[in-house]
Amino acid sequence: MSKTIYDREYRQLIDALRSERRAVGLTQQELADRLGRPQSFVAKVEGYERRLDIVEFVQVCRALRLDPATVFAYLNETG
Questions:
Q1: Which structural domains are found in the chain, ordered by start?
Q2: H-assigned helices in the chain
Q3: Model's pTM, two decimal places?
């Protein structure tokens, strides 16, 4: 089993979150500010260098005003 950071599904998840961040007009810095994290956290996640755990995923979704279940449903449809 490969590490999930390299899985196609994981990359789709991160791509969806990045697309949503851009769609709502937030920079990496602005998202990081909402999360109380440094900009490098967002950059590493979006660059597939750092894996989000489930709690962090929910925090990112909330910061983007997304329903985590909707994101999972989208991935299920596109997967």
A1: 4-78 (1.10.260.40)
A2: 8-23, 28-35, 39-46, 54-63, 68-78
A3: 0.87
